[in-house]
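Re: the 753-residue chain
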Amino acid sequence: MSTQEGSTAMPEEQSAVTAGPVLSVVVYGRNVQGHLGAGLDALAAQASPGVEVIVAAVGASARDAAAGRPGVTVVPLPEGTDDAAARVAGAERAGGRWLHFVHSKDTVPTGAPRTVADRVLDLPDGVDVLVADHVRSTWRHQGMPSPDGKHLARQGRRDLPPADCPDLLRVTPLLGNRVLRAEFWREHAEHLAGHDETYAAYAALLLADHIATLDQVALNVRELRTESLPAGRPEERFGVIDRYESLLALTADLGLPAAPRAALYDVMTGDCLRVIAREKLPDPVRREFFHRASKAAVAWRPEGYRRPGGLEGVRRRILEEDAYTKYRTFQTANQQRRKLRSAVVARKHKVGVKVRDLRYRRELERPVDPGLAVFTAYWDRGVACNPAAIAAKLAELAPHIHPVWVVSAANVPLLPPGTDHVVPGTRRYWEVLARAKYLVNNVNFPNAVVKRPDAVHVQTHHGTPLKRMGLDQLDYPAAAKGLNFHSLLERVDKWTYSVSANSHSTQMWERAYPSRYESLDYGYPRNDVFYSATAADIRAIRERLGIAPGKRAILYAPTHRDYEAAWTPRLDLATLADRLGEDTVLLVRGHYFYGGATSPLAGLRKSGRIIDVSSYDPVEDLSLAADALITDYSSIMFDYANLDRPIVVYADDWETYAKTRGVYFDLMVEAPGKVARTQEELTEVFTSKAWHDESAAKARKAFRERFCEYDDGRAAERVVRRVFLGESEESLPPVTPVDERTPAPTPEEATTR
């Protein structure tokens, strides 16, 4: 046995050192395919006094891979020790108050141990299990998001008994996405230590007094190709049924109410039907599996349980009837029905595409209309962002050019009165795209849009890049999510101009989107309003938002995370509002990617402690109304900096975000103001007035000089004069230096004017 320790406690972690480690990461198993070393390298690189690493190393290869790493305790185990026994051995050696079990083939993302340790420190007594998110990696894809985010988001930061959070039983059954209180593990060793991982993962939730969640990634599961190959003996699949029956028996022994029992029953029947439908089993084995699954479905069906509707309900009814032949007939008929429906849809689509292409090609043969401009923003969301600012200036300086907006059917009612528009896919949509001289977008037009030689495509973008974009996402597949880079480059090749707000953006766009377009280093037109808005404008905006005079308004605008399925505020907003006092109003804006989701702010906004502005447009109004901004990694910080008002970065998961999304610079070093890593730190920043002290102002000044370089209030004018009126570069209004600009008045100043 070899034990090696070595790290120096940071001042803020001294209490954790005194009390022993908060978290024990127990890595267990063989050195599968040689993956153990890389995982331990990543853990060792982020060693912390509050986190210890225990390696229950099975066999000489695992022991050798774990040896020689500072801060890693190695528990050598003989070859052939199974995973359950290895977990037990690792847990016995662990000194942490919480245990995080990680299989030797899997890895822990950068920043996850600290994030988990911080979260469990905040948990009240009585919480036994913390359920976190995970990503998956295979031999061909890295960091694919899990399907669990929606379940974690639904619970938010509450801790609940199993009866009140039955949906967590639908979270992928891994021990590595459950962090267990060490005492809880020992108290329930019979169910947690002596069974396979899947059983233990479910049992942990059933046995817990209270369960909390963490909607951040704490585990990267490596799915080995050998695991996807058929099992050695088909009869081994019968164990799936046995496991669920044991778990349902446990729910009965524990006297759990109907909700968790029904959820687990749903999971069992769904899994059994998936085995029957999808796995390659000999017919006799499949028939026997069906029979055993039927007996279990009947025996364990909860009282009052109602089957789901539709085809799934039919499948489950046939399963309960133990009608295997009927099921196979139903399955065959359903497959034929799907094939027929797919063929009909494909034919209709093919005909529709041919008709569309024919009409579009005919329009492309007609001359380009020099007086027609097509505008769209955010995937046809409406009149917004840089395209909207350009269109407004166009009406002033070049009224002879007619603008037409592309807007989705759902958003047409939200358009300003009198806006000429087309809905995607309609006949006129293809007509205007074919004939317009100017096409302006802050994303990309569809692949089918042809770039005519005498047409002008203006890419305005919709933010300054902190996160990796374009081709720079090649090394970050969790963020790219299957992006076709060849198609992307074909779209980029259609750009005539690319609008930029600063030299950093210009360089990053040229790197992420390499092509022959011309960069217009003019500033972002949407930010012009930050220099033209008057005190009366700001008072009117605050009145529309319901901000009483004299109140301090703080805008909280977090960004989208590629590893989250749904948005949950990363702050306990009710507590924050209480700590900041009655004179503070929180304007909370969720990212537009989550616009279709039910707002997690519904309960809080009824209390009047916050104002949910997630659906409010334009976002520039919110910035003008706010005395300060709290954000994480959103590009709103670059725009808001134009106002020269305080910005506080709340970076509770910076390491995870940077690792999974990729970033162009270290925001922790080049922040536009104070940085808080915990809610307590954030609260302290505002209650101590550090949010607007001299050091915050100094950081903001440096940030503005770098990232507000071209934004001086005349960006839209420069774009219109250069692109639509054909004026020379030399004749355009020069960019005013940052220190010579006068931003719009602050809300406090607006009340006195």
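The chain is about 40% helix and 15% strand.
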